[in-house]
């Protein structure tokens, strides 16, 4: 299952042919490569991920899917060096990420953890501005680049008019967008998002996912995110990674990976998979216990 | 492109110089707070210097400070009263900044060096010196040693694959209680006069402080206050939680260690000079934060608030009961508590929940 | 959620093992702890300036007339009241500590946070310094009144404004009131050596003084406090999930807070008045108990009620042995026994964050 034959040459600076390069960023180098090798992640005694190998396709949107507690957030945290591996390594451009200076990593990899908490009274613009921390120095606390990045992030997430409001007074969706704006303002070539659509209504979910596509298409950013909605994953992912019990069950182009059998294996749910009428990507329709037609009572194979 | 670019929005103004590439964010309300607090502190200090057994007109204080005027007055002002005023300012600033640092590290407004055992360590050492040593020992170095020892012990005990703010606080509380208990025990073993002497120190006292108290404390503040302000770049991301901070490239453990060292050193030097002046470390950062309308304690404003609190309390202490030298800690406790409660009630009305 | 007609797909989602409803509480450990407590109580009766063998202790307790009259007099007149007092005070402190941490959702909360220690202290010094009460334990009612008043003030201040009482508001108000009262106490103590003399021994904490009549006098308050406290246990479990969730679960959050605060006030107020500020017990023991029970208050509260008196009795016995023929105050020993234990716990694993 290697739908990206160019992956083997990712070390070369040549831009990935599939990533449309605009004239504006023709000078920017290829996004850094991020890979995990024989990764073993533990919380104390409990092993969450074991022997995992992964190459994140550069310049693409990868989506990790899986049931609750399958280790997908843990993997994301390890990719962002928030969690040191018990053994194995995460490598950024071939160097172990947890041995690199954290500030250097922060200019390459941005992470939005799940459910972050802002201190009471912090305004949106201050929060988003803090995303510029890895680019600032003691004497340059608000350069023109900072200003531009923060304005762009606010505009991209549609919260420019909320800039001066305290984060704790916003609605859940607005708050989530403010945090995403912070990660966007960090302007990293790799962006890791842990369930960015939580708390959002349908229209804002689509807004955020479209924003992710913009970031990917326009700036060539590599995006890895954890999503719960399989159909959104299929539609927005270039590369989907299905996890179960701490290991990768399947990965590749959604159309090849997401099948009824895989959904049954990963989520323990019977479903029908058809083509999305709009995009042709897989559309997963779970069956459930009550609406499966005559075949419903038959036991699912384990 | 002009030399200086300014852009304004409510609550924050950004500036950018093109020649030395310096830029930053200014907060008018914070700036106003700092200027106001500094001015008030200077006024209170002058009045404080003017007050005493030999009253001097407050207007004569400033000329006397630079050596102009009656030589007798110059001597009283420069040698007898200025050191006391300076110790008040420096100790207040040190306590306040240290409190702000601890509240940042732990993300808990209740955390302060008062609570996590550094003051308690200094106190135990000094009381042991008074009760057991019989007066041959000098108290300030003893207090410094006690405070640093307690801090070292806390950090050592809390260290285990890194030290979380939470664990530092819990270990600190245990150490604080053990030190306080040791102090209580020493007090029960002491002669009544010794006990009274010890309690007088325990409360925090400025009586009879001279230049020998100012010098070490002044040097410590001169180094540590700028250090604390420089660390502000890290604290800004630490406020968002360890994970986000790390994601933004802040070396979380290193930042916390640096902050801890600065905070401990500040409070140890201040305690050595004045004894544990109650409440300043806890209240001053909170007061400054609410005055400036920010989401975290601002370092410089907190320092000025602390300086003003201690100076004003010292003045009040001398006004309330002129014939007795009431320890300044008694007043900071009462004053700070009242002010914090007032702020609490006021912010409640505004609905921000304290 | 577990029903017979569950399809394999649903069964796969539910946890394997016992169904949730069948989970038993830690009854075994509770019985073990109770046995330990009984042994400690017997030791507390046996150990002292005159050692009494355990069999004679049991005999004298079972049948007073059968024992040596001198021994019976010691046991029934001195040791038994002291041990009973230890049991009562320990249970009260432990329970109020667990309640306080549950109510404020702050692991740093101890009963002292409601101002009871500071209020009690002020009561003592006012009784001695202001009213000249010289009787050995005549100041107990003043201390109790001080503790009650302080906690009422803290509660009212904490619940001012919109949104009623929130944990942060209560904590800040508690700290502020504590500092305020401590300042007042210090003023009295510094001006009146006699008050200081009484205060320093009260502050060390002791179970030695009070007689049977005193115990009987505070017993009703403690009884009401215990009933109120235990009755809040289910509501505290809901409250641990946040105010909004608790409301959704049908709890009247304000009422729960009021009831819990009342219980803490009665329990800790009475304990502090009689035995001095030994509130550290109330901070440590709930953390220990939480290791055994998890966050379920239905088990946590009984556990603290057993473990806290065990710590207190142990501290009392040790205090009688270490400095024979004199004694070390129980509060001091409790801090030195509990402190290292607490630190070891903090280091060993992540304590359940509230």
Describe this structure in words.
The complex is a heterotrimer of chains A (302), B (354) and C (354). Chain A has 302 residues and is α/β, with parallel strands linked by helices. In chain A, 28% of the residues lie in helices and 24% in strands. Chain A is built from 9 helices and 12 strands. In chain A, α3 runs parallel beside α5 (172-185) and α4 (144-156) runs antiparallel to α5 (172-185). Chain A is globular and about 60 Å long. Chain B has 354 residues and is mainly alpha-helical. In chain B, strands 1-2-3 form a 3-stranded antiparallel sheet. Residues 1-23 of chain C have low confidence and may be disordered. Chains B and C meet through α6, α7, α12 and α14 of B and α7, α8, α12 and α14 of C.
Give keywords:
heterotrimer, B: 354 residues, mainly alpha, ABC transporter involved in vitamin B12 uptake, BtuC, 3 strands, 71% helix, globular, disordered C terminus, C: 354 residues, disordered N terminus
In terms of topology, how is this protein built?
The complex is a heterotrimer of chains A (302), B (354) and C (354).
Chain A (H helix, E strand, L loop, with lengths): L33 E10 L2 E11 L4 E6 L5 H8 L7 E6 L2 E2 L5 H5 L2 E4 L11 H7 L13 H13 L15 H14 L4 E5 L7 H18 L2 E5 L3 H7 L2 E6 L2 E6 L1 H4 L2 H8 L3 E5 L6 E5 L16
Parallel strand pairs in A: 3-8, 3-9, 6-7, 7-8
Antiparallel strand pairs in A: 1-2, 1-4, 4-5, 9-10, 11-12
Helix pairs in contact in A: 3-5, 4-5
Chain B lengths: L3 E6 L2 E6 L5 E4 L1 H23 L7 H8 L5 H36 L11 H16 L5 H20 L6 H25 L2 H11 L8 H20 L1 H7 L3 H6 L4 H23 L5 H13 L6 H22 L7 H23 L4
Antiparallel strand pairs in B: 1-2, 2-3
Helix pairs in contact in B: 1-2, 1-3, 1-13, 3-8, 3-11, 3-12, 3-13, 4-5, 4-6, 4-7, 4-11, 5-6, 5-11, 8-11, 12-13, 12-14, 13-14
Chain C lengths: L7 H6 L13 H20 L7 H9 L6 H36 L11 H15 L9 H19 L8 H25 L1 H12 L7 H28 L3 H6 L4 H23 L4 H14 L3 H26 L7 H19 L6
């Amino acid at each position: 299952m290697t739908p990206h034959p160019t992956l083997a040459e990712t070390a070369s600076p040549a831009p990935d042919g599939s990533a449309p390069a605009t004239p504006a960023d023709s000078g920017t180098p290829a996004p850094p490569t991020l890979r995990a090798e024989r990764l073993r992640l533990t919380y104390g005694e409990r092993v969450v991920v074991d022997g995992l190998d992964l190459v994140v396709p550069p310049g693409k949107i990868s989506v990790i899917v899986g049931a609750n507690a399958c280790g997908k957030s843990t993997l994301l945290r390890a990719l962002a060096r928030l969690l040191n591996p018990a053994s194995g390594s995460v490598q950024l451009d071939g160097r172990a990420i947890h041995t690199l200076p954290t500030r250097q990593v922060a200019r390459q990899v941005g992470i939005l953890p799940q459910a972050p908490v802002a201190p009471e009274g912090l305004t949106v613009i201050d929060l988003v501005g803090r995303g510029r921390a890895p680019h600032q120095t003691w004497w340059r606390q608000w350069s023109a680049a900072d200003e531009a990045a923060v304005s762009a992030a606010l505009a991209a997430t549609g919260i420019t008019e909320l800039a001066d409001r305290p984060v704790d007074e916003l609605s859940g969706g607005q708050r989530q967008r403010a945090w995403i704006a912070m990660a966007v303002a960090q302007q990293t070539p790799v962006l890791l998002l842990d369930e960015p659509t939580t708390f959002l209504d349908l229209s804002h979910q689509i807004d955020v996912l479209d924003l992710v596509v913009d970031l990917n298409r326009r700036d060539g950013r590599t995006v890895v995110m954890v999503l719960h909605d399989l159909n959104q994953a299929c539609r927005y992912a270039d590369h989907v990674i299905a996890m179960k019990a701490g290991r990768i069950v399947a990965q590749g182009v959604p159309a090849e990976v997401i099948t009824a059998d895989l959904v049954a294996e990963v989520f323990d749910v019977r479903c029908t998979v058809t083509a999305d009428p709009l995009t042709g990507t897989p559309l997963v329709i779970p069956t459930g216990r009550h609406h499966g037609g005559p075949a419903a009572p038959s036991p699912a194979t384990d | 492109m002009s030399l200086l670019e300014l852009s304004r929005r409510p609550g924050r103004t950004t500036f950018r110089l093109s020649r030395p590439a310096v830029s930053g964010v200014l907060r008018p309300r914070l700036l106003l707070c700092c200027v106001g607090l500094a001015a008030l502190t200077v006024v209170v200090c002058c009045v404080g210097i003017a007050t005493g057994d030999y009253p001097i007109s407050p207007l004569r204080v400033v000329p006397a400070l630079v050596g102009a005027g009656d030589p007798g007055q110059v001597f009283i002002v420069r040698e007898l009263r200025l050191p006391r005023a300076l110790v008040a300012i420096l100790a207040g600033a040190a306590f306040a900044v240290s409190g702000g640092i601890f509240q940042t590290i732990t993300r808990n407004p209740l955390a302060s060096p008062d609570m996590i055992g550094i003051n308690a360590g200094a106190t135990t050492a000094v009381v042991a010196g008074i009760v057991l040593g019989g007066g041959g020992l000098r108290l300030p170095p003893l207090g410094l040693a006690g405070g640093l020892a307690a801090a070292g012990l806390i950090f050592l005990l809390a260290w285990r694959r890194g030290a979380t703010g939470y664990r530092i606080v819990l270990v600190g509380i245990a150490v604080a209680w053990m030190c306080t208990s040791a102090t209580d025990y020493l007090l029960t073993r002491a002669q009544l006069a010794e006990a009274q002497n010890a309690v007088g120190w325990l409360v925090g006292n400025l009586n009879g402080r001279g230049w020998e108290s100012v010098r070490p404390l002044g040097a410590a503040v001169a180094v540590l206050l700028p250090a604390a302000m420089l660390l502000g770049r890290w604290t800004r991301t630490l406020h968002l939680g360890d994970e986000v901070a790390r994601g933004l490239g802040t070396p979380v453990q290193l930042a916390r260690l640096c902050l801890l060292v600065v905070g401990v050193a500040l409070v140890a030097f201040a305690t050595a000079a004045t004894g544990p002046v109650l409440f300043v470390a806890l209240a001053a950062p909170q007061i400054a934060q609410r005055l400036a309308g920010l989401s975290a304690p601002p370092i410089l404003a907190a320092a000025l608030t602390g300086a003003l609190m201690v100076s004003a309390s010292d003045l009040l202490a001398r006004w309330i009961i002129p014939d007795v030298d009431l320890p300044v800690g008694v007043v900071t406790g009462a004053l700070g508590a009242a002010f914090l409660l007032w702020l609490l009630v006021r912010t409640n009305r505004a609905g921000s929940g304290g | 959620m577990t029903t017979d007609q569950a399809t394999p797909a649903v069964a796969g989602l539910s946890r394997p093992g016992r169904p949730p409803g069948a989970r038993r509480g830690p009854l075994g450990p509770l019985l073990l702890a109770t046995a330990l407590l009984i042994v400690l109580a017997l030791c507390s009766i046996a150990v002292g300036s005159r050692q009494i063998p355990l069999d004679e202790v049991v005999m004298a307790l079972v049948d007073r007339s059968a024992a040596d009259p001198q021994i019976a007099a010691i046991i029934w007149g001195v040791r038994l009241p002291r041990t009973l007092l230890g049991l009562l005070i320990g249970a009260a402190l432990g329970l109020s500590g667990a309640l306080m941490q549950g109510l404020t959702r702050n692991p740093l909360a101890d009963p002292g946070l409601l101002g009871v220690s500071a209020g009690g202290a002020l009561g003592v010094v006012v009784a001695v310094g202001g009213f000249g009460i010289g009787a050995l334990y005549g100041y107990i009612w003043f201390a109790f009144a001080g503790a009650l008043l302080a906690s009422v003030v803290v509660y009212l201040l904490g619940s001012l404004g919109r949104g009623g009482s929130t944990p942060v508001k209560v904590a800040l108000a508690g700290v502020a009131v504590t500092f305020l009262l401590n300042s007042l106490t210090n003023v009295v103590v510094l001006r009146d050596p006699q008050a200081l003399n009484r205060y320093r021994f009260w502050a060390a904490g002791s179970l030695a003084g009070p007689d049977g009549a005193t115990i009987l006098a505070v017993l009703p308050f403690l009884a009401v406090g215990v009933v109120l406290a235990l009755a809040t246990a289910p509501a505290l479990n809901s409250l641990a999930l946040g105010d909004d969730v608790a409301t959704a679960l049908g709890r009247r959050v304000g009422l729960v807070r009021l009831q819990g605060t009342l219980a803490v006030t009665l329990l800790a107020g009475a304990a502090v008045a009689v035995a001095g500020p030994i509130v550290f017990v109330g901070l440590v023991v709930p953390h220990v108990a939480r290791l055994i029970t998890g966050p379920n208050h239905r088990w946590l509260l009984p556990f603290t009620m057993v473990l806290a008196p065990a710590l207190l009795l142990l501290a009392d016995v040790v205090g009688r042995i270490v400095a024979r023929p004199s004694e070390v105050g129980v509060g001091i020993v409790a801090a030195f026994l509990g402190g290292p234990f607490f630190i070891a716990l903090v280091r060993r694993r992540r304590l359940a964050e509230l």
